[in-house]
Amino acid sequence: MSQPKQGNYFMLPNEIFNMDLSSGEIALYAFLMRMEDRKTYNCYPSYKTIGNALRMSKNTVMKYVRQLEEKELIETEHTIVEHHNGSLRNGNLMFRILPIKQAIDAFHRRQLYNYGRNK
Questions:
Q1: Which tens digits make up the pLDDT trace of 25-36?
Q2: Closest residue by Cα to residue 72 from 114, 101, 33
């Protein structure tokens, strides 16, 4: 579960530094934590917004989003936007920060699986 915003700061779970995340994955996770609504754990930044903030290309952002999803730190959902003329279009992804315990459990499952394969 996310930590409450503290003034102009926000807290990251210490556990993310023990999960073999790349610096890009940590940067993206931190950005999403900064952007999230603290009650719903959701946020809606575009790939372009994320890329500009983190100085990453859209493809790189997309790669890190997939990796964070695989590691069960976030989940995404497509949104639909209705324009003033009534037409429907794809909106930004909705990002949801998942409980850190779920990500830690998934990390340990991957470690056990890899350990068993390497024996």
A1: 999 999 999 999
A2: 101
